[in-house]
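Priority: medium. Attachment 1 of 2:
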């Protein structure tokens, strides 16, 4: 198969908007220079997220019609449950409407005030659920993506050992491996790292849980980067990883290849019973969990399609190609690329903009202004904090911009256009100005903040 060829043909199409330069400029002003507030009809290529943005296959669309909308005991649930059990090996399968509902229910049922959850990196919604249970999230990432590690998503096993053996060790209720590590640059966790975490969990009596939202992409990258597993299929590797853990949750808006959905899957019957009690209160009856029967059928089919090697290779090669082209266009790309996104170091491209003037936001907004391309900022707007002593915001550790890749949606020519747009922006980098925040919410400020350009 040629490198980076879409392993599918297109059956249904949706026109994309072509906003003019004036429309883009007025959309930015109307949105308070916050791309979350720009209506999708003003976006040409939308790389804001890979979540809930997948194109479904013909088989998934036909599975929708088989959806059983019975309130209790729907056959759609039986099909979903059987696919998840086959894949994960966990017998307790609980559907939910999206990933954060799974986190809230599972971590809320598991964690008690004073407990600790240790992770390679808690995704921000995971962190919020740990904290709302009165527990403390601790991140111990091993990887430094700038050091080009093939497994930049790993947890630091020495630090995990020290933590478990230390004075706080007895408080650790669970170790969470986010595969792939989205907040840590979308990098994979190696099989050896999961085995190491399993051993430490056994030794110190903690539960090992997976945030498996991108489990298939993680499994594929293992087959590419971990010599011992080079001749296994992504599906085999995924099954082996699930077998090492005690349970998982997932946002199925990613590797479920559908537009909504999530799950909790566990070996522990008692914990699953407690989760189902919560589920009924906040999501729905245990055989639909906030989803329509048809969603469960589309997801069951998506979970079977997503481990296809040809699809996963195309996905990884797409990210690599985009990363290489953006590098040639003059953008500092984090290497190696993973599958779901390409990350740019905005601080390196815009050294004249200090963190409190939001360089990553400035870059994202310029990409929109230049070509109606929408990406997301993962810098001080998202991860920074208002300084309690007044003064400049406490800066995020890094100023990243994420070009997320919706699954099976954009073709190579769309991405060529993205590269052209990025090249124009990079060529004008020294003229780009920073921003100040004029209005912000107390939590999750990036979704609604209103900004003003400086200068
Ligand atoms: N875990 C990970 C690793 C995620 O990336 C996300 C969402 C969630 C949990 C929460 O799932 O959105 O279904 O409630 N990530 C999205 C993103 C929002 O753009 O990366 P959700």
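Attachment 2 of 2:
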């Amino acid at each position: 198969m040629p490198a980076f060829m879409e392993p599918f043909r297109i059956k249904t199409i949706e026109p994309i908007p072509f906003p003019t330069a004036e429309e883009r400029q007025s959309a930015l002003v109307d949105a308070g220079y916050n791309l979350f507030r720009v209506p999708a009809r003003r976006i040409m290529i939308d790389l804001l997220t890979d979540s809930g943005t997948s194109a479904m296959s013909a088989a998934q669309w036909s599975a929708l019609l088989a959806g059983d909308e019975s309130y209790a005991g729907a056959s759609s649930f039986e099909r979903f449950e059987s696919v998840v059990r086959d894949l994960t090996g966990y017998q307790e399968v609980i559907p939910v409407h999206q990933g954060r509902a799974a986190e809230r229910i599972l971590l809320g049922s598991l964690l008690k005030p004073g407990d600790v959850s240790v992770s390679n990196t808690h995704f921000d919604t995971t962190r919020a659920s740990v904290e709302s249970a009165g527990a403390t999230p601790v991140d111990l990432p091993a990887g430094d993506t700038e050091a080009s590690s093939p497994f930049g998503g790993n947890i630091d096993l020495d630090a995990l050992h020290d933590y478990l053996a230390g004075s706080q060790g007895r408080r650790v209720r669970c170790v969470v491996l986010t595969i792939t590590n989205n907040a840590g640059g979308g990098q994979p966790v190696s099989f050896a790292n999961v085995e190491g975490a399993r051993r430490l969990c056994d030794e110190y009596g903690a539960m090992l849980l997976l945030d498996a939202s991108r489990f298939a992409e993680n499994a594929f990258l293992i087959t590419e980067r971990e010599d011992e597993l080079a001749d296994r299929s992504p599906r085999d590797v995924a099954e082996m990883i699930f077998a090492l853990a005690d349970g998982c949750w997932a946002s199925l808006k990613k590797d479920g290849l559908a537009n909504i959905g999530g799950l909790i899957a566990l070996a522990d019957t008692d914990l699953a019973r407690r989760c189902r009690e919560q589920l009924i209160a906040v999501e729905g009856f245990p055989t639909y969990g906030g989803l329509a029967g048809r969603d469960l059928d589309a997801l069951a089919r998506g979970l079977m399609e997503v481990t296809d090697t040809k699809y996963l290779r195309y996905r990884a090669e797409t990210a690599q190609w985009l990363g290489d082209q953006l590098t040639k266009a003059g953008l500092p790309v984090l290497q190696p690329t993973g599958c779901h996104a390409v990350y740019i170091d905005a601080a390196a491209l815009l050294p004249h903009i200090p963190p409190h003037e939001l360089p990553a936001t400035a870059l994202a907004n310029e990409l929109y202004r230049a070509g109606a391309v929408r990406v997301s900022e993962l810098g001080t707007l998202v991860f920074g904090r208002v300084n309690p002593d007044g003064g400049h915001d406490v800066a995020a550790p890094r100023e990243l911009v994420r070009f997320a890749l919706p699954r099976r949606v954009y073709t190579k020519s769309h991405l060529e256009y993205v590269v052209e747009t990025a090249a124009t922006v990079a060529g004008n980098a020294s003229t780009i100005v920073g921003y100040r925040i004029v209005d912000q919410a107390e939590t999750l400020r990036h979704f609604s903040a209103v900004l003003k350009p400086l200068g």
